[in-house]
Amino acid sequence: MNAPSQPETATDKQAVLKRLTENVPYVRYMGVQVEIKGDELTCVLPFEEKLIGNPLIRALHGGVTAAFLEITAHVGLTWHAVCNDQLDLSETKLSLPKTIDFSVDYLRTGLPRDAYARARVTRAGRRYASVNVEAWQDTRSRLFAQATGHFLMPNRT
Amino acid sequence: MNIEQDRIARQFMEAIPHSKDLNMSLEKISKGVAIVSMPYDERLIGDVETGVLAGGAVSALMDTCCGAAVVSHPDNPGLTATLDLRIDYMRAATPGQTLRTRAECYHVTKSVAFVRAVATDEDEDRPVATASGAFTVSGGAS
Fold first, then answer.
1. What mean pLDDT, rounded, does chain A reach?
2. What is the average pLDDT score of chain B?
3. Whole-angstrom Cα distance, residue A45 to residue B25?
4. What is the CATH number of the domain that holds A97?
5. Which of A55, A93, A109 sits opposite B15 (nearest CB)?
6. Which ipTM score applies to this complex?
7. Domain limits for position A41
8. What percent of chain A has pLDDT over 70?
9. Which residue(s) pair with B12 in the sheet?
10. Which of A91, A115, A119, B135 could crosslink B113 through cysteines, CB 3.0-4.6 Å?
11. Model confidence pLDDT, tens digit, residues B104-126
């Protein structure tokens, strides 16, 4: 890893965040990609056969949906901290927040196609944070899952 | 009837692509109780520094196990889907150890099955995570 010593521009911040998340083996296994426009972050879950939970109706696995939303919460929280300059991006040992609890509502069947999710940080304290996540597939306004969770923020200097 | 239902439930659970991909194995499935284990896998690491598994992988194991408990319950004659699932994380699973989840479908109505589950690693006295959820009952109004 050759992290830029002082990431200052928005592009630098995005690059560091993407590297931080895409270096996590589980994020790579799931195939989750991070897209950032301005300060708005969207996680994308490209469809793969291995994500199927019910082969008869070809629905996404409920655990895949939960995991995708949880990854989005972690990335969204970290991005929130980056945007508020609470995170030193030159620190090489950055880690993602830890989940305390996570509750997922399954609103519609997950279809065998790409999914998208965005996180909204409702409270970000020094130690604890609360996050809501919304996920959709074809239509932004037709959510197929939503979640709320509480997180322990990584130790910061 | 129960033995036949257990067999069908087992067959179905073992055909789930995502669970197969994570090498989950069904250790027990009968009358609303299921035990599913998942070996440690470097692909599922969530923290590179420590090698601890990602929470999402624990969620997948929990959801699979809860679903298995529901389809093996005598009052649910068919398949199921998750309505909601809440997971509480007590501690990090020890890297290198197999995770094992026991789920119990403790109440079934015409439309909803209620399930709770506990996940442990080799130290079975200290839970790694607990889950509670509601699942659909086949034939029930959606």
1. 89
2. 92
3. 25
4. 3.10.129.10
5. A55
6. 0.93
7. 10-152
8. 89
9. none
10. B135
11. 999 999 999 999 999 999 999 99
